[in-house]
Amino acid sequence: MKPFRAAEFCVLSLRMADQTLDATDHEILALLREDARRTLSDIATRVTLSTAAVKRRIDRLQELGVILGYTVQLDHAKLGWPVEAFIELRFLGTSNVDEIVQTTTRMPEAQAVFTIAGDPDALVWMRVRDMAHLQRTIDEIRRSHRVTSTKTLIALDSWQRGVK
């Protein structure tokens, strides 16, 4: 008999495209989010399954598109890009979503672009070397004929789930 886990009590299941993710799947995902290089054997020990069963579950999560890939977490400050900023963008009323996204995704400073319902039209998460670099980046965005205004928010500190 499997030992009781609080996660099973709290999260009974998630229905997704006719496939059920149970508490063990969520536990495996949490362990991988914590450390994607964790061995199958280590995960199996922690979720009290065989290594083969864990591999089957991870393969299924990949096939379902729940696990999209594996990545590395970088210390951007050590890479010389310590400043994080969010730039609100407002566009001409005739701009479509593709134009909004294309304005910033070609920029290496852009970490993510979110199109938004309401005001503003988009939010761009940027990483830059310093304030002068941020100013040049904002100026480049403003030169787009589609952008009508910007507002910049500079992050003082940050926290991300699954990032140490």
UniProtKB/TrEMBL annotation:
Transcription regulation keyword on record: yes
MF terms in GO: sequence-specific DNA binding
PROSITE patterns to which the protein is assigned, alphabetical: HTH_ASNC_2
GO cellular component, one term: cytosol
Organism domain of life: Bacteria
Residues covered by the HTH asnC-type domain: 21-82
Keyword flag Transcription: yes
Single biological process term from Gene Ontology: response to amino acid
InterPro entries associated with the record: AsnC-type_HTH_dom, Dimeric_a/b-barrel, Tscrpt_reg_AsnC-like, Tscrpt_reg_AsnC/Lrp_C, WH-like_DNA-bd_sf, WH_DNA-bd_sf
Keywords assigned by UniProt, alphabetized: DNA-binding, Transcription, Transcription regulation
Protein name in the entry: DNA-binding Lrp family transcriptional regulator
